[in-house]
Amino acid sequence: MTSRREAVAAEIPRLRRYARALVGDSSEADDLIQDTLERALARLEQWRDGHNPRKWLFSILHNLHVDGLRQKSRRPPHVGLDSLGPDQSAPAADGASGSDLDRALQQLTADQREVVLLVGLEGLSYAETAEVLSIPMGTVMSRLARGRDRLRGLLALGLENEAEPAGLRRVK
Amino acid sequence: MTGARRISEAELHAFVDGELAPKERAEVEALLAAAPEGLRSVRGLTELNERLARRYAHVLEEPIPARLAALTAKPRVRARLSPAWARAAALVALLVAAAAAGYLVRDFRGGNGGPQPAFVASALSAHQVFVPEVRHPVEVGAGEEKHLVQWLTRRLGTEVRAPELSAEGWKLMGGRLLPDRGQAAAQFMYEDASGRRLTLYVRKEAGLTDAAFRFVERGDFGAFYWIDRSLAYALAGRLDRGELMRLATSIHAQLGGVGSG
């Protein structure tokens, strides 16, 4: 049992990264992780030893996230395009482009955001993503294409002030 | 006869996400060669993924909040074992492992080690960002290894070499130059037959004294880092710790003669 707990604990950084990008707010993201861990630890016997618990944990997180959205019948916070400008305060280390990205992500539908992040940020395969979200692969692919299109469109609008030529990496 | 067919949008995404079988992949690559707008999309999608990775990478490095860490801490058993006993056990296990590997552990300061040198975070981030990269995992490929090594040696200002790991089943893919706190750093990338990737990060660390292997875990991958004659190394990969240790040992042995000191 201890090794299972350790395996779950080892996933916390990845879960937190995903949740942060998914809900946008760090304490709300950690609330979601807390609920995820509590539910996972109460059902440790549900995944077989020797397997990576990541997919299982992501699916628990997904279910809780969806439940939370339903309960609060909370829509993704609406942010007007005019507030996407770089004047919004952002964590200093990430600069304006980071907060643009946060806001643009929050403008996707929750369905699109999950797929874009599971594939694009967490590197899950389409099949794994389909499994985590309990949807067909075709749905993963269509949400991914729509979500990425929308995200790129939003970023292009908010990015007039960000000069980041392709090939140049920002040095933090 | 058959004009070049168009690449579908779904194919472009699948290409960027590494979802295509080798044959389909080769086909899309061939089509892309003559499809500038397709290439633009590929680049745009890749950049989007890189941006997401850059934006949220720092979350992986944040300390885990106590309320979360407490949840997965060992239940009950903890009450019976005194922390001192646990620390001693951890120390013994670590010394045994180190002795088995033929290294003396220096600068050991308890269960999780002392402060981590700054280059480790850079190495882990670089690993995270470039390992999933499908199209441009390296800047200069292994085909131009001589050029790569000369270039990195010149930019780092010290002799740099790509260790040979083919006996262990790892093939050099190439490398890249990276900025790290105002200095140049190098990353070599290796791949094994199953497509797993390994990176070796190297930079000059004139200010730090030599240090034996230390292990750090980040998300789903681990890294061993060490400092040898003013060069800092970090070997990172999604491997089990023993396997990573064997590779680090081999690299340390190979590169032991390198470095101007």
What's the arrangement of secondary structure elements?
The complex is a heterodimer of chains A (172) and B (261).
Chain A: H1 2-10, H2 12-23, H3 26-42, H4 54-71, H5 95-107, H6 110-120, H7 126-133, H8 137-158
Helix pairs in contact in A: 2-3, 3-4, 4-7, 5-8, 6-8, 7-8
Chain B: H1 9-16, H2 22-32, H3 36-61, H4 66-72, H5 77-80, H6 83-101, H7 118-130, E1 140-141, H8 145-156, E2 170-180, E3 183-192, E4 197-204, E5 211-218, E6 221-228, E7 231-237, H9 241-255
Antiparallel strand pairs in B: 1-2, 2-3, 3-4, 4-7, 5-6, 6-7
How would you describe the overall organization of this protein?
The complex is a heterodimer of chains A (172) and B (261). By secondary structure, chain A is mostly helical. Chain A folds into two domains: 1-74, RNA polymerase sigma factor, region 2, helix turn helix motif (Rna Polymerase Sigma Factor, Chain: A, Orthogonal Bundle), CATH 1.10.1740; 79-163, Arc Repressor Mutant, subunit A. Chain A contains eight helices and no strands. In chain A, α2 (12-23) crosses α3 (26-42), α3 (26-42) crosses α4 (54-71) and α6 (110-120) crosses α8 (137-158). The longest helix of chain A has 22 residues, at 137-158. Residues 78-96 and 160-172 of chain A have low confidence and may be disordered. By secondary structure, chain B is an alpha+beta fold. Chain B has two domains: 9-61, no CATH class; 116-255, Phosphorylase Kinase, domain 1 (2-Layer Sandwich), CATH 3.30.200.100. Helix content of chain B is 44%, strand content 21%. Chain B has nine helices and seven strands; from the N terminus they run αααααααβαββββββα. Chain B has helices at 9-16, 22-32, 36-61, 66-72, 77-80, 83-101, 118-130, 145-156, 241-255; strands at residues 140-141, 170-180, 183-192, 197-204, 211-218, 221-228, 231-237. Chain B has a seven-stranded antiparallel sheet, with helices on both faces. The N and C termini of chain B lie far apart (64 Å). Chain A binds chain B through residues 2, 5-6, 8-14, 16-17, 20-21, 30, 33-34, 37-38, 41, 52, 54, 93-94, 97-98, 101-102, 116-117, 119-121, 123, 125-126, 141, 144-145, 148, 151-152, 155, 166, 169-171, and chain B through 9-10, 13-14, 17-19, 43-45, 47-49, 51-62, 64-65, 67-69, 71-72, 74-75, 77, 132, 178-179, 182, 217-220.
